[in-house]
Automatic annotation (TrEMBL):
Coiled coil: none annotated. The keyword Repeat applies. It comes from the Eukaryota. This is Uncharacterized protein. Keywords: Leucine-rich repeat, Repeat.
Length: 92
């Protein structure tokens, strides 16, 4: 699916970010709401080596996941357009 730009993986009981996601060069909006993702690590969203062919993310939504935002490493979202488009929320 080389032309895929929006990926919705909401409500899938995911425990982590799906492997291989950084290799999808055209995904710009990613929705992972209401899963069970508790940790994010460098390389989950962005290729380890900057790839000029990778479209930057315009939106990453992680609502409803038990992610402690204070533990997120600074480089995790380095291939996002701006932090303002990254949505985190503490689950109730």
């Amino acid at each position: 699916m080389p032309k895929l730009q929006d990926l919705h993986l909401d409500n899938n009981r995911l425990l982590s970010i799906p492997p291989g996601l950084p290799q999808h060069k055209n995904i710009m909006a990613l929705y992972l709401n209401d899963n069970q993702i508790a940790h994010l690590k460098d390389g989950d969203f962005c290729p380890q080596i900057d790839d000029p062919m990778k479209s930057p993310y315009s939106r990453i939504s992680l609502y409803g996941n038990p992610i402690p935002y204070w533990e997120i490493e600074p480089g995790v979202f380095r291939c996002a357009v701006d932090w303002i488009f990254i949505q985190l929320e503490r689950p109730n």
